[in-house]
Amino acid sequence: MTKQLFLISMLHTVSLLFSRVFAVGVFFFVARFINPTEFGTLTLFLTLSTLVALVGDGGLVQWYVGKGQLERGGLEKVLFLRTLFLLVTLILSAAVFVIYPLFSPFLILCFLFNLLPEALLSVLDAEYIVQKKSYAIGIKNSIRYFFLMVTLLAFGSKSVEMMLFSYVLGSYVACAWYVPWKRIDFSKLLQTRKQVFEVFKASKNYGVLISVSALYSRSDQLLIDFFLGRSFVGAYSLAYRYLDLAVLFPTTIGQNLFGKISVLKGEEKKSVLPAVILMGSLGVLTGVLLYGVAGFLTQGVFGSREYYNSTIVLQIFALALPFFFINAPLAVVAQRANNISKFLPWGILNTVLNIVFNLIFLPKFGIVAAAWGMVLTECTGFIINCVFCERWLREKD
Asked: Is 66 exposed, middle or buried (0-12, 13-18, 19+ CB in 10 A)?
């Protein structure tokens, strides 16, 4: 299983690599033309958009990949329920911006208008994962960043507002292309109350888990903005983009392993162990490499003392990379369908630990504290996953 898993994941990774490299390249290109404060606004807007989209998915992607694809009208059920979640997130987002306006009025409007395509582009990943068309996921992401890049190059605009407006426009174009119009039976989009409740009941635990995971990975930037200011968000985000690129492969390992764990029985379960060992080894090698080139990737590329802290943050992230890699297969085992309710409290606890750590140390020690908080909670996450994995191996089928 290990060989097949890695082969599929490598193909998935390669198909997404162009998109991820292109997106990171756009970010870094833009960062050379704007100051850290403006870069912080850009990345915070996109980070918050992703966070709201993941929370709004409500676990529907995981439900569809694991089970919903086999149900008649499964895709239509996902789209109907995701539309309901979209209305909820739209109302809540508007309310939050009224109370705490993170952006200018123009960017707030852009953010709210972006929720629709963001919702569809996010939840429809499930259909393309099932169809093994990962290249489509890469293309739809590239379309949006292409529009952002065009604004900077073709029009010479260094306005963050114009760049983000172009990104939103690109989201609608990508959405028009990404929606599998021919596969959707529009006559089945309207679901009965019973059908909606059944899907919601089946996906809600994953919805909570994904929301917690999204909050775990994105809350640090929100807290940095609150305590330290937008320029520090820019410096932190620069290092985080490199981390995001480095963990692409373990992320795809988790996605491809997700649908296979439930069918493993008896001695077959031990086939996961070679994957865990190999992932740990790759994580160490990647971490050492990233640590060694951190200075060049930040100050060397951008040539600015304003990004000095980015070097330190990236080196700390490199220490966490082995845990990112090894946690990829372990987390899938710990979060399998018949165990999700038992794992969920521990996942929430680990996220709370991360947030509390940042609340205590971030105001005093700056963005370096946020990076160490990630290392700490990746370690505790590793321990939690190991405990659940050991129990799974001992379970009698």
From this structure: buried
Residue indicated by tokens 């109302």: 91
Separation CA 374–CA 5 (nearest Å): 27
Average pLDDT over residues 332-347: 80
The string of DSSP letters for 256-286 reads: HHHTTGGG--GGGGGGHHHHHHHHHHHHHHH
Q: Answer yes or no: are the C-beta atoms of 49 and 107 closer than 8 Å.
A: no
End-to-end distance of the chain based on CA atoms, in angstroms?
A: 19
Is the backbone of residue 61 left (phi > 0), alpha (psi -120 to 50) or beta?
A: alpha
Q: Mean pLDDT across the stretch 359-370?
A: 96
Nearest 5 degrees, angle CA 294-CA 318-CA 278? 130
State whether residue 228 is helix, strand or coil: coil
Q: Which residues contact 365 (CB under 8 A, 6 or more apart)?
A: none
Phi, psi (deg, nearest 5) at residue 159? -80, 125
With CA atoms as reference, report the closest residue to 84 among 196, 202, 185: 196
- Taking the model in full, what pTM does it have? 0.85
Q: Tell me what the pLDDT averaged over the chain comes to.
A: 84
* Helix locations, 58-188, DSSP H: 60-66, 74-99, 105-123, 125-130, 134-153, 160-178
Question: pLDDT by residue (tens digit) across 210-244?
Answer: 899 888 888 999 999 999 999 999 999 999 989 98
> What tokens were used for 384?
């939690």
Backbone torsion region of residue 264, taken as left when φ is above 0, otherwise alpha when ψ lies between -120 and 50, otherwise beta: beta
Contact 67, 203 (CB under 8 A): no
Check pLDDT > 90 for residue 92: yes
Nearest to 375 by CA among 306, 307, 324: 324
Tokens of 68: 């919903």
CA 332 to chain centre: 15
Give residue limits of the domains in the chain. 2-394
Q: How far apart are CA 321 and CA 310, in angstroms?
A: 16
